Structures are given as structure tokens and as C-alpha cells.
Amino acid sequence: MCLAVPGQLLSIEGDDPLARLGRVGFAGIVKRANLAYVPEAKCGDYVLVHAGFAITVIDEAEARKTLAYLAEFEPEDLA
Amino acid sequence: MKYVDEFRDPASARRYAEAIAGITTRPWTIMEICGGQTHSIVRHGIDRMLPKGVNLLHGPGCPVCVTPAGIIDAAIALAGRPGVILCSFGDMLRVPGQGGSLLAARARGADVRMVYSPLDALAIARGQPDREIIFLAIGFETTAPTTAMAVLQAECDGIPNFSLLVSHVLVPPAIEALLADHANGIQGFLAAGHVCTVMGYWQYEPIARRYHIPIVVTGFEPLDLLQGLYLCIRQLEAGRAEVENQYSRSVRRDGNCTAQKILGQVFAIQPQHWRGIGEIADSGLGLAPEYARFDALRRFAEIAVPPERSSECISGEILRGLRKPGDCPAFGTHCTPEHPLGATMVSSEGACAAYYRYRRPRAASMAIAMAAGDNSP
Fold first, then answer.
1. Buried-most residue among B17, B60, B256, B292 (CB within 10 A)?
2. More confident residue, B309 or B52
3. Starting at the edge strand that comes first in sequence, how are the strands of the sheet with B162-169 ordered?
4. pLDDT on residue B349
5. Which residues of A touch B157 (CB under 8 A)?
6. DSSP letters of B67-125?
7. Are B135 and B147 in contact (CB under 8 A)?
8. Chain A interface disruption, residue of B135, B249, B375, B376, most A CBs within 10 A
9. pLDDT above 70 for B376
10. Residue B294 burial (CB < 10 Å; 0-12/13-18/19+)?
11. Per the CB < 8 Å rule, is B16 touching A70?
12. What distance, in Å, lies between the first and last C-alpha atoms of chain A?
């Protein structure tokens, strides 16, 4: 129910803050999403879309840090 | 798919399982809050990668499951009024109240429609001014801003034929209710990543301190869940009780302030009944007085929400972490996703439905997936 899917913001339409719309690409499928809750979003950003709304801009550097966390384990950390 | 595939890498998942085994010296009981996390854990077999004695309890975070049966009954009654089009999310239409589901009402002739977003319901209202459009609004803090925006747009654009039956729920009061019930033995929480994307996690800091319990804000992919469990167990082993953020690519401490501002404008906090659990103080959102004219139960004052009847189903105990699906004699026999007895079997994110789909013989689950038209990867 709280499913939110990451997609890339391809273009932005309109400037009404409540109704600004983005075209978001999800691995080949393009859907429109309301951008009212991500006023900072710009084309090329990845956003998380839930029920027709982008709810956050994904932080690329933080994603890389999360993936790198495991690589920093020393062999003795592993059983 | 970027931000999905790389968080499903099997070799990294195995290394996490080893790392968790390496730091675990005793049994721990950890609850994941969100039904999406439960679904992912059972689907990917994450619970089976953990050391013996690490027990995952499945929390109440499936809003479809915890929506009171009486709300569904009221929605069915509203759908039966002349001129009404009742809209909600697909999952919600299949869930039986105490007198059938909205899909069954549609089969009897009611105009019930599945929408992807509350804005789709508003678009129907714009297109059909001679009909009354009612949106059955359910969901946690993740979904409530989408409802709030539909209300704001309806007001801005003066849409007179749009109203809502609101049953939104809030996570932190439910966590506190679970912690006050010592019988479940919860020692750590994985908090729901998308709820915290909207609300942030500062609200969880006093809970972690008060109950001396680690809370790790966690995402939904296998590596997210394994890292969340690793961080939670590392805290437990060290005797720490802090809020940590595993899902930092999406969640910031303060959350989405724009969404919170609009939530605060459109909704007011109120007591809320949770299906299978009962009433929890301050755990629901209702329309604020300024927006009360959008309340479908006010517009159709002849419709009331009936009280919940007791049932033989143990879903209340499952939602509170006291039992697991296999403990129920009805599980998989006279309680199935097609004919659910209660909350945790009604939606695919309920613990019983996830166990039914992924923890039964292969032939049975294939048949269910095919019957459901499943094409998920």
C-alpha cells in the first residue's frame, strides 16, 4: 500500500505549485506524477512516486553510500 | 531498474546474512512495521537468512488490513445511493467488510471504480458534474498527502460533487500501543521507509528513548531490509537504543515539510479504530473543520459506520506481534485470500496473505499467482 516506485523525471509541465506535473520514466514506461510535494525536483532527478505523487527526490550520493556500506566490512566482521 | 536492481544483488545479500550471523550472540525479536516490508521479507526469504533465534514479527502496517470493517460497510452503503460513484484503491475494493466487499457491491450494480490516485477520483468528479463522486481515502502518512492534495484542488477549483470517506492512520501512536503491550516481547523496530519519507523520523526519537528500543528506518528492497536488520541487531548487541536511518537515499530527519504542512492544513488528528486491534488514541486523521463539507458522512448523513463485530480470526494478535499466521487453525483452510476471515488475509501485504502466497507448496502458490493475474518480476 505504501509502495513507491523510483523513476526519472523527464519533463515538467505547468507552474501552479499545487498542480505542477512531471513525466516520469520507469524503465521504459512513462507516467505523469504530481510534483507539488517536490518543489525542488528538476529534470533528470530520480523521484519516488506514490499514488500519482512524487514524494521525494532520491539522493544519489546517499544511495551510493548505502551500497558501499557492505564493502567496508572487514573479513573478520563476517562469520 | 535504477535504485531497485542494485538493492537486490544476491551475493551482497549473502554477505549481509554472514555479517548478521557474525554479530549475533543471542536471540532477538524485531518487528517490521510496514506491510510492504513484510511482503518483501517473506517473498525474498529474508527471515530464513537470519541466525536461529532472530525472530521477525510482522507489524500492523498494512492500511488496507487495518481499515475498520465498518468503514467498508459504510462505503458499500454510500455506493448504493442514487447517483454516487464510489472510488478507491484496487486493494480496498476486494476487502470484505461485515457485509461483503465493494467489488461484490459492484457486481450487484453499484458504480464502484478502482483508481490509482485520489486525483483520478477528482478527475471523474470534474468530468461528471451530475454525479456524486466519493473517494474512500485510506493509508498511512505516505498516502494521506495525496488525499489532502485532492481536497485542496477540489476546494481551489470549486468542485461541488466530490467528497471523501476518510480512514487515514498514523504509525507512531500504533508503535507506542504495541510497546505498551509487553506480551509481544518486541526488542527492536524496522520503521517504515516511505512513511518516514513524508514525516521524517524525529517523532521516533522520544519513543526510542522512553522504551529503550532501537528503531531503524528501513527501505523495502532485500539489501535495505538486511542492512536495517544488521544495524538493529548491532544496536541490540551493544545495548544501544537509537533511531538510525538506513533508507537515507529517501528519508531525511525532518521528512517532507511541504507535505507535512498540507497534511496539517487539511486534516486533524483524532482517535482511530484499527481493524483487529481496536481504538488507538490520536492515531487517525479526519478532515479539519474548515474542510468538513468534503466529509461524505456529513453529506450523506443517513449513512452511519456500524460497530465491529467480534470474529474467530486471530489477526488482532498477529498485528500486535503475539501470534504468527501458522498458529491459526483457519489459516489456508477456511481462511484464504479469496475468502478471508480477517484483516491480515485481506490484502496482499497482510502477513497471512504473504505466508499463504509464499510459504505453501509451489503448485498451490503458482495457481494463486496465476489466478491473481500476477505479472510482478
1. B60
2. B52
3. B112-114, B84-88, B132-139, B162-169, B278-287, B267-274
4. 84
5. none
6. S-HHHHHHHHHHHTSTTEEEEE-HHHHH---SS--HHHHHHTT--EEE-SSHHHHHHHH
7. yes
8. B249
9. no
10. buried
11. yes
12. 36
- Which amino acid does the sequence have at B249? R
Q: What distance in Å separates residue A13's CA from the closest CA in chain B?
A: 16
Considering only residues 20 to 79 of chain A, which have any Cβ-Cβ distance to chain B shorter than 8 Å? 26-27, 34, 36-39, 46, 48, 50-53, 55-56, 58-60, 62-63, 65-67, 69-70, 73, 77-79
Residues 6+ apart with CB under 8 A from B123: none
Q: From CA A10, how far away is CA B355, in angstroms rounded?
A: 38
B172 touches chain A (CB under 8 A): no
Amino acid B365: pLDDT: 47
The pLDDT, as a whole number, for residue B94 is 86
Query: What stretch of H or E contains B169?
Result: strand B162-169
**pLDDT tens, residue by residue, B239-265:** 999 999 999 999 999 999 999 999 999
| Cα–Cα nearest to A41, from A9, A3, A1, A74 | A9
Chain A CB within 8 Å of residue B227 CB:
yes
Looking at this protein, which amino acid is placed at residue B4? V
pLDDT for B377 equals 34
pLDDT per residue over B92-148, tens digit each?
998 888 888 999 999 999 999 999 999 999 999 999 999 999 999 999 999 999 999
Distance of CA B4 to the CA centre of its chain: 21
pLDDT for the residue numbered B373: 46
